[in-house]
Amino acid sequence: MSNLSIANLAGRKPRPISSTAKGLAAAAVVLGIVGFLIGVLDGNPTDAWAGLLTNYMLFTQFGILGILFGAIANITNSTWMRPLKRIAESFASFLPVSFVLLIVLFIGRHYLWGWISPETFQLPHDPEMHHGPHLAHVKHWWLNEPFFWGRQLFVLAVFNLLAVVYRKTSRRPDEGAVAEVNKAGIAGWKGLEAEVGESQRKQKIMAPMVAIAYGVLWTFHSFDMMLSIDWTFPDAMFGGWQFSSGLLAMWCLANLFGTYYRKNAYLDDLIGKQQYHDLGKLIFGFGIFWMYIVWAQYLPIWYGNLPEEAPYLILRIYSDPWRLWSLALPFIIWLIPFWVLMPAANKMNPKISGAMALLVLIGLWMERYVVITATLSPTKIPYGIDDILMTLGFAGAFIFLSSQYLRKYPVVTLTDPYLKSGDHAHH
């Protein structure tokens, strides 16, 4: 890639964030904090803690998906993903916030994880409190506080470390190339060709590490943070379910953020029909896979009427008030996007595919809310203004942090040998 083309790409900065937009992002974060405090002080703090955990799990996963996107691009040698790679990397800017949120969740642990105090915590399907305390004792080797919180800190530490190292490796040749164009330099610079080769080699080594870490560590994190709320439910497929729904979310985020930066960072020649077509196919395909995983969990429990597992599903699928929320999820996450994105023209239409991506993300938020909150509030859906404000706060922080990253560093991987124009980006 010539210096002229590097200079051209490096000059494509996202449009400056207006003071109004910054103010709205800050207001959203403040309102999110206020919403959480209102919920905590409203007489039933469990509902507020459940809402906080729901958003923590979703947006922390979003942050991890940012480096996973790049890892998949490196593993598959894909060209169509390259214009979106740096945009996705910006998502990982949220991960340091997750550390703070984990500490906050530690403060409210007694409201969320009943196995901490099984003698006083009543599960909805265990009114006599015989089954729950017994299993809490049996599983104490795994569900005990020092080990539990040590695992969560380890997971976040690994992903934060991977994000720092992976993103630094990815952007170093770009920063050096821009410095060369500006007649400057960076420490230890070996020349553009050598730096690009070394960066690609290191990313190839790190990419499988990122993918394996996501598959293993996020699975355990999901088991711990969500499934252990009802520690009597033995679901071996839960981790795979959360793994696959995260990949579905990744394609949706790439679609939405790619559309925004396509216009606001002047990337029309890099993000085109090829990207939208492939993202549309992936949203379409992973929506089907999500439905398959859900059905694969439901069918043996229903068919076998398994006594240890049936109460978990009965509460969410057959009992009011959670039944409608649960039954709506297949329509929101799978069926509606399935029909809408079936034509190729709809996949390549940013407005249509973007609307489906947003719908799926809303459905994935609802999925986590049902999983987390139904056990804690079996007789009512406590969704209210505090949950809306918290979600807005998380979204505001996520968008602001990712946008700041892309203001600081090149918005595309401009020295990447796999970077092609939108019309020439094939698989």
Annotation keywords:
single chain; 427 residues; mainly alpha; 16 helices; 72% helix; globular
Brief rundown of the structure:
Helices cover 72% and strands 0% of the residues. By secondary structure, the chain is mostly helical.
Could you characterize the architecture of this molecule?
With 427 residues, this protein is mostly helical. It has 16 helices and no strands. The chain has helices at residues 3-10, 19-40, 45-76, 82-89, 95-107, 109-112, 131-138, 145-181, 192-225, 238-264, 273-304, 310-318, 322-340, 344-347, 350-376, 385-408. The radius of gyration is 23 Å and the shape is globular. The two termini are 20 Å apart.
- Share of residues in helices: over 70%
**Main β-sheet, in a few words?**
none
Beta strand count: 0
Count the DSSP helices. Answer: 16
Query: Which spans of ≥5 residues are poorly predicted at pLDDT below 50?
Result: none
Shape: globular
Subunit arrangement of the protein: single chain
Overall mean pLDDT: 92
Please compute the radius of gyration using only Cα atoms: 23 Å
Following the backbone from N to C, one meets helices and strands in this order, namely HHHHHHHHHHHHHHHH
N-to-C CA distance: 20 Å
Structural class: mainly alpha
Strand percentage? under 5%
